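If you are new to this repository, start here. Below is one unmodified record pulled from the training split, so you can see the exact layout before writing a loader.
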Amino acid sequence: MSDEEIFVELRAICARILSVDPAVIAPDLDLRDELEADSLDMAELAAATEDRFKIVVDLDTAKQARTLADVVTMVRDGGHQARAAQAG
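And here is the target side for that same chain:
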């Protein structure tokens, strides 16, 4: 699955959880600051991402995600981006 395909899926999930128009969601939009996602929204996004992409999202990685581009990278890396980066 390409990054663009992952983004499209995540945009739909994010739009549903945050009750926003998918057209306003861009890859580099800050989920917390610009879309006003709170900690519950972020937890729901992480759970929905795990369900949709059949991955286990590392809690530290999920906390570091600020944009959907970050989440796309997390999905592509199987949910373990932060742990891999810290190990290197």
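Two things worth knowing about this chain: Confidence is low (pLDDT under 50) at residues 81-88. The chain has five helices and no strands.
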